[in-house]
Amino acid sequence: MLEGVTLMNLGQTTIEARDASKEEDRLLVTRFLGGDELAFTELVNKYRRQVYAVAWRFTHNHEEADDLTQETFVKAYNNLKTFRGESGFKTWLLRITTNLSINLKKSGRVSKDSGETPDEGTAGDTSAPLDNLIEGEKHKQLYRAIQRLPPKQKETLLLKTFKDMTCEEVAGVMRCSVGTVKANVFNAMKRLREIMNPGAAL
Q1: One CATH from 1.10.10.10, 3.30.160.670, 1.10.1370.30, 3.40.630.30 for 129-202
Q2: Is the dihedral of CA 64, 68, 69, 71 positive or negative?
Q3: 182 CB neighbour count, 10 Å cutoff
Q4: How many CB atoms neighbour CB 24 within 10 A?
Q5: What does pTM read for this prediction?
Q6: Annotated domain spans of the chain
Q7: For 146-202, what is each residue's pLDDT tens digit?
Q8: For the stretch 124-151, what's the b/e string if a residue is b when 16 or more beta carbons lie within 10 angstroms of its beta carbon?
Q9: % of the chain beyond a pLDDT of 70
């Protein structure tokens, strides 16, 4: 019983934190629209890592993800006056990132996969080089398999596996229902298993 209460409290705390973050965003947007340029800088500092992470998931290339991050904030700066607040600022911002990333992928201008992950800036950790190599290879295989998914399944999975996004937020970014998000994730995972383990279903 105590465990159930603890989980309930944790869920409530998470909801309250999200609500507080949305309110903070709303106030920052209001300040910016009122002429406070520093408010936008605070929004950039708050969401830069998340925007980069989403862009990297689509491109798998540091330079492209970095460029997309900058392009996202430039576009957000120029269009913030059109933000109506129907969705949260974070959802609106990541929708921009997602659309820019998809357009870049469709253009065929994405450079070769850098082979890094967003958190890999330090190559000096050689405590378990073989394990790291194996894990890196598995990660690349998974990424290549994800690229073979139908577009909507791929986009949904890339967003949903981003740890800070709920199904509701993914639905907001993709402009679809929560049920569609869940169905896309389910079908994407099923398809991934078939791609990576072709003999398993036999």
Answers
A1: 1.10.10.10
A2: positive
A3: 15
A4: 14
A5: 0.75
A6: 1-109, 129-202
A7: 889 999 999 998 888 776 688 998 999 999 999 999 999 999 999 998 988 876 554
A8: eeeeeeeeeeeeeeeeeeeeeebeebee
A9: 75
Same fold, 1-109 and 129-202: no
Considering the domain delimited by 1-109, tell me its CATH architecture: Orthogonal Bundle (1.10)
> Read out DSSP for the chain?
-HHHHHHHHHHHHHHHHHHHHHHHHHHHHHHHHTT-HHHHHHHHHHHHHHHHHHHHHHH--HHHHHHHHHHHHHHHHHHGGG--SSS-HHHHHHHHHHHHHHHHHHHT-PPPP----TT---TT--SSHHHHHHHHHHHHHHHHHHTTS-HHHHHHHHHHTSTT--HHHHHHHHTS-HHHHHHHHHHHHHHHHHHH-TTTT-
CA–CA separation, 129 and 196 (whole Å): 24
The predicted structure's pLDDT at residue 8:
55
